[in-house]
Amino acid sequence: MSERSSANKLVCYGEILWDILPAGELPGGAPMNVAYHLHKLKRDVSIITAVGSDSYGAALVNLLSKWGIGTEYCHIDHYHPTGIVYARSNEHFEMTYDIVYPSAWDFIIWDDRYVSLMQDTDYLVFGSLACRNYTSGNTLFKLLESAKNKVLDINIRPPHFSRKVVEQLLHKSNILKLNQAELELIAGWFSTSSTVADKIKAIQDRFRLKTIVVTMGSNGAVLCMDGHFYQHPGYKVQVADTVGSGDAFLAALLSKLIEGAPPEAMLHYACAMGALIASYPGACPHYQIDEIVELNNFSNIRA
């Protein structure tokens, strides 16, 4: 694909911030990460977010512009600082996060321009973390009233979530992406199912979700689409950190969905993208699309 595709427009909604890692400060926030990778994949993507009127905020706006992602829906908040997250990794490359509150992205205010934006948007990508504060949560639910395809990237970060809000978001969504721990938690609210497939089916039936995908780290992922299950065991890579690898996975999955690729191809490509980003430090590294193609072959699949 040599030119940017405008056949399907996507909008990412929510947090934009700086990840403070042992190796240094890197841009992050799931919505921005997804937008970055969608843009790399030549998709037409915008982001609705907010930053503070500080040096961190100015740096993020400049970075979005440098990447070629529009900043017209990036609100400048003069009362709250740009978001910061202190991220740490253990010996198993599992991340823990200390998400500073309040942050500018907690206060994404409604803008009447969003009405026409949603009319032109095919996919709205959002997470549960954006609902930890009423202002951003209220704006999101207003967007969901008119959004076409609603992609929920669950982001359970205690104590920044409530079961009530998560279930409300699930009822509004068409596509759900979550990790294995989040699958266990949510399915456990209303089901005693024991297998991954049964837990997915329980969530799908309860919330009438068309598509559910569960990421399982180095063990790959499971996709349930239109009642059919597909599984990929993951790719072998030397892990730098896992920050943003799930966001890259989602961007690749959506890109292939827009192309009309078969479910198996969608899942293979998404797993390759997630593994590739895990091999780099940070959520939004510089990489070439050819690297995904090189990784996405059977010789690199885990045994």
- Portion in strands: 15-25%
Number of helices: 10
Count of β-strands = 13
- Poorly predicted runs of 5 or more residues: 298-303
Strand order of the largest sheet: 5-4-1-8-9-10-11-12-13
Euclidean distance between termini CA atoms = 32 Å
Q: Which outline best applies? A: globular
Major sheet description: 9 strands, mixed
Question: Quick summary of this structure?
Answer:
With 303 residues, the protein is an alpha/beta fold. It has helices at residues 30-40, 55-67, 113-119, 134-144, 163-172, 180-188, 196-207, 245-259, 263-278, 289-295, and strands spanning 5-13, 17-21, 24-28, 43-52, 74-77, 83-89, 95-99, 123-127, 149-153, 175-179, 211-215, 221-225, 228-232. The chain has a single domain (5-296), classed as UDP-N-acetylmuramoyl-L-alanine:D-glutamate ligase.
Outline the structure in words.
There is one protein chain. The protein is of the alpha/beta class and 303 residues long. The protein starts with a strand and ends in an 8-residue tail after the last helix. A nine-stranded mixed β-sheet has the order 5-4-1-8-9-10-11-12-13, sandwiched between helices. Strands 3-2-6-7 form a four-stranded mixed β-sheet. 37% of the residues lie in helices and 25% in strands. One of its GO terms (molecular function) is kinase activity.
